[in-house]
From TrEMBL:
EC class: transferase
Binding site for ATP: 10-18
EC number(s) per entry: 2.7.4.25
Membership in a protein family: Belongs to the cytidylate kinase family. Type 1 subfamily.
Superkingdom of origin organism: Bacteria
Protein name: Cytidylate kinase
Catalysed transformations (reactions): CMP + ATP = CDP + ADP; dCMP + ATP = dCDP + ADP
Organism: Emticicia aquatica
Amino acid sequence: MQKITIAVDGYSSCGKSTTAKKVAARLGYSYIDTGAMYRAVTLYFYQHLVTITNEKDVAKALDNIQIEFRRNPNDGRNETYLNGLNVEDEIRKLYIANQVSEVSAIAEVRHAMVAQQRKMGKKKGVVMDGRDIGTVVFPDAELKIFMTADPIIRANRRQIELNERGDLVDIEEIIDNIKKRDLLDTTRKESPLRKAEDAIDVDTSYMTLDEQVEMVCILADEAL
Ligand code: C5P
């Protein structure tokens, strides 16, 4: 059966990951969460007190970082491993979200992650979500989605997600984090977040998750 590459880019908390994961499951594709990779790098930098302005420190740290995704046999969830340790829950916390955009703006970090992402998605039949998938990682992806949503709705969704993980955070703090990340992600020098010319806009503000999944699956079918 013919398979394609699906790139899902957009702002934080628009529902990219949840949708991409479900689309992948429905199509029998693999799913790669590139945000998790930048979050894992951020966790490593935090744990090892890496000075992000020191190029040598950053290069050395990157040499020591190994990121992989493993499927949890109990619930089938794809989980992020950093140097063999499961960091899935840790990287979702707000203190990581508050630092990740600074770390992901570093050119060396991006080059290392993009190289890994291209390897991971070499075979077709992949749904990859992030900020630069359609523009940099897989500019030839057959289907590119650019997700947007109202900032308040995004903040509410993120709060529910954090609450479910036991991270009780004030809505104002989440709004601040989302605004800060959007600004840093769209204005950084190295591969800023922007819509690829051939990407399809999907505003998820008033869409249910099922509707989002259905829409992307229809578009994927059309792109075959
Ligand atoms: O998707 P998620 O919110 O987990 O991404 C966390 C952060 O990682 C983003 O705010 C962005 O700074 C960075 N990121 C990136 N490029 C990607 C994926 C994520 O710069 N492809």
